[in-house]
Amino acid sequence: MKKGVFIVLEGPDRSGKSTQAALLKAWLEEERGRRVLVTREPGGTSVAEKVRGILLDPKSEIAPLTELFLYETSRAQHTVERILPALRAGKVVICDRYTLSTTAYQGYGRGLDLKTVDTLNRVATLGLKPDLTIVFDMPDRVFGQRERLRGGRDRIERAPDAFRRRVNRAYKLLSRRPGMTRVDAGRPIEAVQADIRGRVARLLGK
Ligand code: TMP
After folding, report:
1. In this predicted model, what pLDDT tens digit does every residue of 101-130 receive, in sequence order?
2. What separation in Å is there between the alpha carbon of 42 and the centre of ligand 1?
3. φ, ψ for residue 29 (rounded to 5)?
4. Which parts of the chain sit beneath pLDDT 70?
5. Which atom of ligand 1 sits closest to the CA of residue 40?
6. Taking the model in full, what pTM does it have?
7. Which among 141, 88, 125 has a CA at the least distance from the CA of 8?
8. What is the overall mean pLDDT for the chain?
């Protein structure tokens, strides 16, 4: 039985999710007295981090269907080994990306069949669904600006601009689904964090 709370942060590359995850964890622990696990996909366990290495290595040549299975492989291990035990222990789990990334990147971005993606998402998660998914909305041009600041590109970030635009459009569409909440991630870090805390506070109640 799940006792904890499962929060997923989603959105395009370089939309600031990991910074926001760290700030949210500090607030939940210090102000709300919650125990928190921050984790990420692909990755989050020793085996899943190895799969991440394969997926993001610019030297890997990976067919779209193989890419889909690798993301789901990482997810299955991560869900069983880390997320479910943390939820059973009553923790708040903040996960940087989960199933919506696969729908956006492999479904809409790579053009794989959306029903197949949904099915594999369901299998890899053992049916686990987030309590809240926060979708970071960011204009396409911000990626270029943030890239100049950070530099370096992994295999997915090297994909053509058209791929990134398809992914970004998909996120805008998907953020309207039930259970999703959208934040404008083009603003200063503190403003984005304030929005996120407001949504999470509503989810957790008093
Ligand atoms: P990140 O940790 O920088 O977000 O890198 C992960 C990359 O993998 C990012 O470009 C998004 C991509 N990705 C997918 O294509 N499908 C997925 O299911 C997940 C979780 C991530």
Report:
1. 999 999 999 999 999 999 999 999 999 999
2. 6
3. -75, -45
4. 1, 143-144, 147-151, 206
5. 2
6. 0.95
7. 125
8. 94
Which domains, and CATH codes, for the chain? 5-204 (3.40.50.300)
Q: What pLDDT sits at residue 179? A: 86
Ligand 1 center to 101 CA (angstroms)? 7
Catalogue the long-range contacts made by 19-22 (C-beta closer than 8 Å, 24 or more residues apart): 19/189, 20/136, 20/189, 20/192, 20/193, 20/196, 21/94, 21/96
The answer to whether the CB of 41 is under 6 A from ligand 1 is: yes
**b/e sequence 183-204, b meaning 16+ C-beta within 10 Å:** bebbeeeeebbebbbeebeeee
Q: Dig out the tokens for 106 from the structure.
A: 């492999």
The response to whether residue 42 sits with its C-beta less than 6 Å from ligand 1 reads yes
The token pair at 52 is: 């991440």
Distance CA 88, CA 3 (A): 5
Nearest atom (ligand 1) to Cα of 156: 10
Q: Look up residue 145 and give its amino acid.
A: Q
**Which of 125, 144, 181 lies closest to 7, judged by CA?**
181
CB 156 within 8 A of CB 102: no
The amino acid at 157 = E
